[in-house]
Write a structure and sequence with these properties.
Elements: E1 10-17, E2 29-35, H1 40-46, E3 58-61, E4 64-66, E5 77-81
Parallel strand pairs: 1-5
Antiparallel strand pairs: 1-2, 3-4, 3-5
Length: about 90
């Protein structure tokens, strides 16, 4: 790092993807490194899930339901669900 250049902080998350969204990610559970301050939406898009699939997505961070604009922190566990249609 060059002197005077700020370091970019990173956050490493544990991500689990459930249901139909798994087709967009390489594995159902994985570690993901991202820049600190990213939102849940930004992190999900980084994993390859298309934005149009986020409309009905439910997310948990550390077991707590959150909105897509919730920021994540290093060490967070992110669970991503999309309801399965049927009847």
């Amino acid at each position: 790092m060059t002197e005077g250049t700020p370091a970019t902080a990173t956050a490493t998350l544990r991500i689990k993807v459930y249901g139909p969204l798994r087709e967009f990610v390489a594995a159902g559970e994985f570690a993901h490194a991202t820049a600190s301050g990213r939102t849940v939406r930004q992190v999900i898009l980084e994993t390859g899930v298309p934005e149009e699939h986020l409309v009905y997505t439910m997310c948990l961070v550390n077991g707590r339901r959150v909105k897509l604009d919730e920021p994540v922190q290093d060490g967070d566990a992110l669970d991503i669900f999309q309801p399965v249609a049927g009847g």
